[in-house]
Amino acid sequence: MKKLIFTFLLLPTILLAQHKVSGTFLPAEQFRAAILYKLEPSKPVYIANTNIVNGHFEMELDASQKPGMYRVVYALPQDQYNFEFIYNNEDIVFSFDKEKGISFQSSKENTLLNDYKSEMLAIKSKINTFYSNNIQDKAEYMACFTELKTVQHKAEETSENMLVHDFIKAEKPYIPTAFEDAQTYFNNYKTNYFKPIDFSNSVLQNSSFLLDSALRYIFIFVDKQHENTSYKNNIDVVVGVTSKEKVIQKSILESLWNQFKELNNEEVANYIASKYLEKLLDPVKDELLLSDMKAFQNTAIGVVAPDFSWPSKQGSSKLSKLTGKDFYIVTFWSSTCSHCLAELPVLKKYLGTKTNIQVLAVGLEDERPNWEKTIVDYPDFTQIYGYGKWDNPIPVAYGISSTPSFFVLDKDKKIVAKPDDVEALITFLNSHKS
Fold it and tell me: Before 404, cis peptide (omega within 30)?
């Protein structure tokens, strides 16, 4: 099932009556269970879970359940298959079609928010068309922004004393008072982007709104000719506007670090870590994240690879002491990993009689027998027994989370490539033949 992300919301009433969230999912056979969380500034708080039966979902909310933003997770991974809604002591009834999206049969606030977003999107599309087609009709241009202003004012007025009001106010777009060319409009839009957003607002803090807003800013306002410089400058701005809200700032920076890590953008990920995020982390509570960041920094392209040693016939050998080769391949594998057992023979065949490359194969294992049986087939590899698997200090230092993993080092032990698989490894080696 393809990735599905949307936003809905529910709000409070003064009555402490018991309410429920219910809905219909289509196609029914693709949905099995749901987990409900309440969003908090630091992390989501688990509330309940239930089955989705024949496409129908229903959860009773305890009378003491606080208003705010909630998240329903309906598949794994949780960060992809979820939707959010505002709860404020009212029943929520919705229908979700995988192709058509979400609609509400009951919920004033979610309906209001969805209608507001739809109207704003339609007007913004007109504005984009105006600029992309280079239309010169200034009357038509100003009419678009007059309509934008009207929709915003009406939504703020209608949502007064409702929880959704905070989100609508924070969504308020930049509206020019006179004609602006595309570049001027873009620059002013960027300059005014964060002005309507109050990062100290507790309603916004207990939602994904602040994170989503920061991510949009960082990834939208980018000069394609100088991407990383733009990213870093935008990150600096986000850090500035969140300077008084360290919990929110930490959450945003942690999410950003993970995104740039997934993009394998070492420059920006390490910029986030070293300049900002490390200072916000607790050495005990955030030990795992600190370890991951350190490993990512220490295995960046161009960095001397983390050193390690292993028992050998000479007593002990060490990576930094190896000499005489053009390349050293450090590979992490396991005798119980089917992908490893498929890729290592390909690497063995490719190397053949090559004498300028040395393979250091670190086997992540819990027990020796199967490892010892497997390594017999790879007599030319330097075999290193990594007892403890993921907790072994060597994979920890390299930030290993899956096998097989490959690192290519030059003669000085600097990391020159981190190929995703053996095919990419061979492609790299073929392009760097001496």
Answer: yes
What distances in angstroms separate CA 190 from CA 193, 209, 236, 237, one per listed residue? 5, 18, 14, 11
Our CA angle for 43, 7, 66, nearest 5°, is 50
CA proximity to 304, closest of 390, 188, 414, 158: 414
R_g of the chain, CA atoms, integer Å: 27
User: 391-411: per-residue pLDDT in tens?
Assistant: 999 999 999 999 999 999 999
Q: H/E/C letters for each residue in the chain?
A: CCCCEEECCCCCCCCCCCEEEEEEEECHHHCCEEEEEECCCCCCEEEEEEECECCEEEEEECCCCCCEEEEEECCCCCCCCEEEEEECCCCEEEEEECCCEEEEEECHHHHHHHHHHHHHHHHHHHHHHHHHCCCCCHHHHHHHHHHHHHHHHHHHHHCCCCCHHHHHHHCCCCCCCCCCCHHHHHHHHHHCCCCCCCCCCHHHHCCCHHHHHHHHHHHHCCCHHHHHHHHHHHHHHHHHHCCCCHHHHHHHHHHHHHHHHHCCCHHHHHHHHHHHHHHHCCCCCCHHHHHHHHHHHHCCCCCECCCCEECCCCCCEEHHHCCCCCEEEEEEECCCCHHHHHHHHHHHHHHCCCCCEEEEEEEEECCHHHHHHHHCCCCCCEEEEEECHHHCHHHHHHCCCCCCEEEEEECCCEEEECCCCHHHHHHHHHHCCC
Residue found by looking up tokens 């007599």 in the block = 379
* Distance separating alpha carbons of residues 330 and 271, to the nearest angstrom: 26
Domains (ranges, CATH) in the chain?
A: 5-106 (2.60.40.10), 111-298 (no CATH), 309-431 (3.40.30.10)
Q: Look up residue 101 and give its two tokens.
A: 């999206």
Please provide residue 51's backbone torsions phi and psi, each rounded to the nearest 5 degrees: -85, 150
**What averages of pLDDT result for each successive group of 10 residues across the chain (434 residues)?**
38 57 94 94 91 94 90 90 92 87 90 96 92 83 94 97 97 94 94 98 96 97 96 98 97 97 96 98 95 96 97 90 97 96 97 94 95 96 96 96 97 97 96 78
